[in-house]
Specification:
The chain is built from 17 helices and seven strands. It is α/β, with parallel strands linked by helices.
Length: about 400
């Protein structure tokens, strides 16, 4: 419990003594808030002029007070009209409430906090009106949230560590307006596990189409920001990514997500065959070694090859990148054989953005996702489970490459 000073206790007693209901107390505090602002503005003008009000020092000083202007300020205490002091020369530039400012910083902070929690513009507008008695238009809310775009750009270009043992890549679809239509755009996230075993979103990129050139741009951007090496990249079957990462990070091993591969394999399987096929595929991807997995895949071919040749074809074409995890111990396998880490991030992201059915622009998506990332990242304070064991195992395979120091 906070202890009040004697002066604070006296002030509280004076305020409470004049109020009999909570509404009267709120009204009194609102009045005190606007009065306090006016006192602060008076103090600023006094500092600007260099002499106290009514002081003879101001005689023939070349500047003096020149009455007041009126301004309506929006704050957590609602809307209040305050008197803004003026000087005769018009050189006074107040700092606590600037000339064109019509709201206090606390309102902007509230708007950004609510926006980051996934509240829609309309919900924020209603909330500010119902709770604080402040009318804030959707356009104003957009202008307030637009102020974070420089922070988004700074975050997207920030320096990264020189080595990331593992990165995960996946996309999440948002609906964005374009040319009077609403289209699907994919936002791709790169989630890295750093040398300390902690999750970190390295960046976000938006595109309507995947291509080798798009992914080469992403990889080059990571390299330009300081990433010298990635040990293992775990991904869905992203079009063009394999070629891009081989070009920019030629030593990086790639692991296709087994779960995505299974989903794609069973997409057109009849319901009555689904369960036995899942059992037979499980024998492949849970095999103790690649040799054993290949044996079970041959059994799968003999049993299902004629009825579902597309499944065999898909596994064979992608086998080189599907089978990467077989060479590693169990702890590393469990971490890299799916893109669960980044998919889990996208599930949390969807919680924050689910109220927004569509976005007016790409930048609207970026600022919403950026604010959500700040919220989500606060929970990523601990290394992932068994990171000490995993790092020890990776040292066996990548000892020379893990000697590179992180960017400070």
């Amino acid at each position: 419990m906070t202890r009040l000073s004697e002066t604070e206790r006296t002030l509280v007693n004076q305020i409470v003594g004049e109020c009999t209901t909570p509404s009267e107390l709120t009204s009194k505090l609102k009045s005190l808030f606007s009065g306090a602002l006016e006192q602060l503005l008076e103090a600023e003008l006094e500092e600007h002029l260099g002499y106290e009000k009514h002081s003879v020092v101001g005689n023939n000083s070349g500047n003096s007070r020149n009455g007041y202007g009126k301004k309506t300020i929006k704050s957590e205490w609602g809307e209040a009209e305050i008197a803004i002091p003026r000087d005769r020369n018009g050189t006074f530039e107040p700092q606590i409430i600037e000339k064109r400012q019509t709201r206090t910083d606390d309102i902007e902070t509230r708007v950004l906090a609510m926006y980051s929690k996934g509240m829609s513009t309309r919900d924020i507008e209603d909330h500010l009106r119902d709770i604080y008695g402040v009318d804030v238009s959707p356009g104003l809310i957009s202008r307030i949230t637009d102020k974070i775009m420089p922070a988004v750009a700074e975050w997207q270009s920030r320096p990264l560590d020189s080595v990331y043992p593992i990165v995960f890549l996946d996309g999440i679809v948002f609906k964005v307006r374009k040319d009077a239509k609403v289209i699907n755009k994919c936002l791709y996230s790169v989630l890295g596990i750093n040398m300390d075993g902690k999750k970190e979103i390295l960046g976000i990129w938006m595109s309507e189409n995947e291509s080798a050139s798009f992914w080469t741009t992403v990889c080059n951007e990571l390299k330009n920001r300081g990433v010298q090496d990635i040990l293992i990249a775990c991904r869905d079957n992203l079009s063009g990514f394999s070629t891009a990462i081989e070009t920019v990070f030629p030593k990086t091993e790639q692991q296709l997500c087994i779960i995505h591969q299974i989903r794609n394999s069973t997409k057109y399987v009849s319901y009555k065959d689904l369960k036995p096929i899942m059992v037979d595929l499980k024998a492949i991807y849970q095999a103790p070694s690649e040799e054993d997995a290949l044996y079970h895949m041959e059994e799968f071919r003999e049993k299902w090859g004629k009825k579902y040749p597309q499944i065999i074809k898909s596994w064979e074409e992608n086998w080189l990148e599907l089978s990467t995890y077989f060479k590693y111990p169990e702890e590393v396998r469990r971490l890299i054989y799916t893109t669960n880490a980044v998919e889990g991030f996208h599930r949390m992201l969807r919680k924050y953005t689910k109220t927004k059915t569509s976005y007016p622009t790409d930048d609207a998506v970026r600022k919403s996702v950026y604010l959500s990332i700040q919220e989500i990242s606060r929970k990523w304070t601990m290394p992932i489970q068994n990171w000490g064991i995993i790092m020890g195992q990776l040292m066996i395979f990548f000892d020379d490459r893990l000697q590179t120091k992180k960017v400070s």
